[in-house]
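So, read this over?
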Amino acid sequence: MILKRTKAMRFACLFLFLLATVFSGPTYAEELSFDDNLETVALRGKVISVEDIEPDESMRNFVQMEQLAVVEITRGPHKGENHTVHNMLTGHPLFDMYLTEGRHVILWGELDESGEILQVFLQDFARDVYLYLLIGLFILVLLLVGRVKGLYTIITLSVTIFAVFRILLPMLLAGYSPVPVTIVVAAFITAFTLVFISGLQRKTLAAAIGTVGGVLVAGLLALLIGGAANLTGFSNEEAQMLLFMEGAHIDVRGLLFAGIIIGALGAVMDVAMSISASMTEVYCANPSLCFKELFKSAMNVGRDIMGTMANTLILAYVGTTIPLLLLFIGYETPWTTIINLDLVATEVVRAFTGSIGLVACIPLTALASGMLLVRTNNRKQ
């Protein structure tokens, strides 16, 4: 009976997700959209030939080399057209794009009133094909190793991406308060993922309670400490650019705390489900265990998980700031200066509040799971 209910719930969740996907209109324009009314248009091309030439005398202080490339448009209404692109190389690895024959590139084209291309400019290398191959490999590995569970993982991951890009981000752009919106979306992701993977069972409910509780602890603690430490939310360039986005009314400081909630969600959900599932298996093997014994067993499991998962969160945040840390060490920046920088303080709050939320979900999940298992069994008796 439980198995039938679980399958029915999975199909119901999948049906609702597909229904939402079909009837929700696209939130963002496609990357390569061709519109004759626009002055510029994004193009995809392939380098047919390229020639390296010396820059003019007047440009040699700024440009080390100039490339004259012929690019063929490979998609859209202008497919098959050849255009010449001038590429300036300054010697800076961030801005230089050295073209070679056969390289696929993304271009910007200027259009006249009739929609014909007047001039083409180089924007960036085309990298999406390799990213799609990597995603395809990820899906293949999930299916080969996980089989049915791997398929469930792909579906829940798709729902998570859908919730973030079609619900969370549009609501944030519309000016809704970031923290409440993120909490609601995080709760939805948690409920869908756990129910779809495990069905409506006691361990699912316990894991959901632990996950939501841990994420709330992380978010509220970040809100409290961030306010006391006067974190601005403008610690990176992208957050600063949001101020100049036309028509956007975004609480950038609230985005900081929303990001902490989303960043901690995956790890907290993993810990909560691991504890809940382990506790359920222990109780099924020995139904005579009392609440105290179950709680103690769950805490022992949680303590073993806690060390590695806390390291996972901390190392993930440290990994994104290695260049900054090298700058501090290389220039022998005083510790007082480092720890009081808004950027550093933001990352410290992000890492440790997420880790505290992860630790908090352990007793919450153990408590919820123990109460659900023991009380449900007592009622049956």
In short: The chain has eleven helices and five strands.
